Amino acid sequence: MGRGSRKAAVVGVALSDCGRVDDATPYALHAQAARRALADAGLDRAVVDGFASAGLGTLAPVEVAEYLGLRPTWVDSTSVGGATWEVMAAHAADAIAAGHANAVLLVYGSTARADIRAGRRTGTLSFGARGPLQFEAPYGHTLIAKYAMAARRHMIGYGTTIEQLAQVAVQARANAALNPEAMFRDPITVDDVLSGPMVADPFTKLHCCLRSDGGAAVLLAAEEYVRDCRTAPVRILGTGEHVSHAAMSEWPDFTVSPAAVSGRLAFQRAGVTPADVDFAEIYDAFTYMTLVTLEDLGFCAKGEGGAFVEEGRLLVRGGELPVNTDGGGLSAQHPGMRGLFLLVEAVRQLRGEAGERQVRTRDGGLPRLSVASGTGGWFCSSGTVVLARD
User: Fold this and answer.
1) Three-class SS of residue 179?
2) Residue 191 in 3-state DSSP?
3) What is the SS3 assignment for 12?
């Protein structure tokens, strides 16, 4: 088998305890998710020679690997916010294809909610005030304010309405209602979204993701390991990554996210089109992220995202393109850099393990093709992964 010819598959996925977890450390959530992913695959941790981690510790992959009892010979600590894990999955697949690793474990854990509750941290107002950010932070350019400005630009430029944005939250909650692991499951209406407390105009509370605790893990392996796994493999067909800006003044168009590039690359490399996709997992820290990412991935034309989402297309039950089938960051869980959760949910759906929220094709069969697209910072980075069931 020639160098660079090996295919990579996701063979194990898992979540740690999620939602309200007051009695665990972030390291413990990493370990719990990692153990569960290895058990899901049916592989021993001794086969893991690649490791990817970000967001915890001074030397993230070193400290977390040590805690897990791993001594990897391939590591990745790429940190680009919510897009981190799709980018890491791309790097891991490349490493496996090149023969640099045989089995790569991606793992994340955070007690973002518990830390605030216990007074160990406060809500993030700004990422910092050094470098390019020094020219924005003094003027109140918080993370949410940047997303809010981008949403308002789309509304002004394309006539997108606040009711259409609210539909994203309403449909995410409807999907979460089918997920026993979701943090919030009670139905909401457009009026509920619009009448909530204002956070950053035009976003009220329900336009924004929740804050939870939780962790996730994904195990990728070379094709020769697949026969030893207890699960059906999910292939990584194509990936793309892109970074666009750090300062808002350097963002050419607030209505175009970096997914416009990462998605195009991922679909080209996979040899498929958006029309082939059965469902999508999209980073949704705010409702606008879902809408604009759908446009930029090519599921609808630029400026038509509002009309696209208002017809119930995102619903698991009866939706033309089910999106964020677990309820997403708006309703299921959001412990920080949530991109790894997108991959877990995509794999579970493709394997037919999603229970009541299982996506079905028009003929009643299991879905074959999915896309997971993570976004980092304030639309600063994007990673897109196309996955397929054999």
Assistant:
1) coil
2) helix
3) strand
